[in-house]
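Sharing a chain and its predicted structure for anyone who wants a worked example. Both blocks are below, sequence first, tokens second.
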Amino acid sequence: MTGAQNYINHVALVLDASSSMSHLSRKVVEVADQQIAYLARRSKELDQETRVTVYVFADTVECVIYDKDVLRMPSLKQMYRAGGMTALLAATLKSQRELAQTAQLYGDHSFLTFILTDGQENASHRCPDAPTRNARALVDAVSGMIATQEDNWTLAVLVPDQMGKREATQCGFPKDNIAIWDATSTQGLEEAGQVIQEATEKFMVGRTRGIRGSRAVFSTGAEAVNQDTIKAAGLTPVDASGYELIPVTRDAAIRDWVVESGHTYRTGGAYYQLSKSEKVQARKQIAVLEKKTDQVYTGPEARALLGLPDAEVRVRPDHNDDFTIFVQSTSVNRKLVPNTRLLLMTN
């Protein structure tokens, strides 16, 4: 008799070690070590095996740790030294090519790679690890590789500015697998670490729901929600008799509006429509509404669906043609925004 499939995650960090990263060297090690400690903790909690690979790149690309058990990972202190140019495309190609040689026997294997860079590509054309010296051909090689990766591969990149984002898009990175970070300060790097951690949490929770890879690993907002992700997350549809949607026509406090609409206010029973980017606390419940049918889905899985960790996190309302996000209010004075709706749980 065969047992349940083992979830095996192969997580890779591909870290820019060019000269311009020198002022952040100590912070890079600290953030990478924090990410590895977090992966170790969540792997135990979710009963997933996680193996870590680390590449550093400047003029050349070096694999300093390959597919090592996350519970046995050393600090990166001795392995990260900044100096040189930025062979970003060569690092992307080499990391994915070598990881593709990893055995995928007996288990549900999934590959998640984060590339962190503070600048534009400028050295791959003369990097010994690059398959070609031609700059255009290198871009084509990366976009061709990304286009043909299997559904259990997730490749994401953090870039310093809009120009970096444009270049990553030209290289074929899915738009929601590209994030911009502030490469000028240790604070910016700390925040980049948070972004990576939130994306990893979303990935690992998604694994327990049968999701094997993602082309929207950095999306924390309504654009991450669709029929497939709702089904995969096992979201609970709320019985239509158990809630009411009330239009908000003017500025009002949430309790006042509920009472004015002829209902009794119950703490935690009213949800406001997310209309701007804001922080959502760990204890707050989330509901998603399918616009076409006005069907509401709720439950703890709703947070996981949006990639929200069990901690306070900033969420964007990102426009989505099919779904709207509602956040539970625990305050009687929450200001409602006109031209939104209020979701009231009546049971």
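Comments welcome. The first helix runs from residue 25 to 46.
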